[in-house]
Amino acid sequence: MNTDLLRLREDRVHGLPTYPVSIYEVSETDGKVLFDCHWHDELEFILITEGIVRVQLDISEYELRPGQAVFVNSGILHGAFSGDPAGRCSLYSVVFHPEFLASRNNDILQQQYLEPLIRNQFRLSPIFRGTTDAEQTLISHLQAIIKTNIEQEAAYEMITKSRLYMMLALMLADRKPTSAPSRSEALRIERLKQVLSYIHRHYQEPIRIKDLAEELNMSEEHFCRFFKKMMKRSAVSYINEYRMQQAKMLLTETDSKILDVALQVGFDNLSYFITVFKQHHGITPSQYRKLHA
């Protein structure tokens, strides 16, 4: 199974053209980030299986525990972080393209349910804690989807599609029209996406606060306040966390020397790279590589 949700980006293809569904498993034992903030056109359900996980959806944050789930709509900025850095956290993610549920004809399902859902025209709770019968049923469907895809049971594609319909039906049963987000809120989210994209494109290079502020046409002071408010951490902390995630992948997936890994993730000083890595993971890059060999 693919365990690399860290590479999940808006331009990634999930599943196959004939079956656009992917199941991802993510575990974290030595850091804070399960997967970093990103967004994509697909819909997504996330099931927490171990530990305490903080899930960010746009500018809101939720704490979830094992057996609880979250729905991520198309285009929503989202990330998952350890709620207990000293403990292990695990989750499954089911990512699927809305076209998988689309009808060949523009029928009532498309017009009244799917299209308004994708356009965020319904006021829906994205969090399912299992406190109602409907939420318990939805979580059971999600668990069954994960199991049937992992084991590739007979007709698992059809089972997955039918259960996704049931899950959305449970969600939409209590739907209410929602007003569009305020212009200022929408602008803040778009600006955040813009600066995160900049960081993801340039993390291998030196990144100054001045560069990020200029990207959004803000003063450095205004930018720092904006980023801290939106991401609950400083831009420097986020950049280092993102670089550490990329470094972990290089350490486990390549034979590159530690110095080369440092250079590839934007550090021109090996000693500083080792210091930052140890601050995030409690061990040196060499120890991490041996541990995950």
Automatic annotation (TrEMBL):
Residue ranges annotated for the HTH araC/xylS-type domain, each copy included: 193-291
Tree of life domain: Bacteria
Keyword Aminoacyl-tRNA synthetase: no
UniProt entry keywords in alphabetical sequence: DNA-binding, Transcription, Transcription regulation
Translocase recorded as keyword: no
Pfam families membership: AraC_binding (PF02311), HTH_18 (PF12833)
Segments passing through the bilayer: none
GO terms of molecular function: DNA-binding transcription factor activity; sequence-specific DNA binding
PANTHER family: ARAC-FAMILY TRANSCRIPTIONAL REGULATOR (PTHR43280), HTH-TYPE TRANSCRIPTIONAL ACTIVATOR RHAS (PTHR43280:SF28)
Name of protein: HTH-type transcriptional regulator YdeC
Organism: Insulibacter thermoxylanivorax
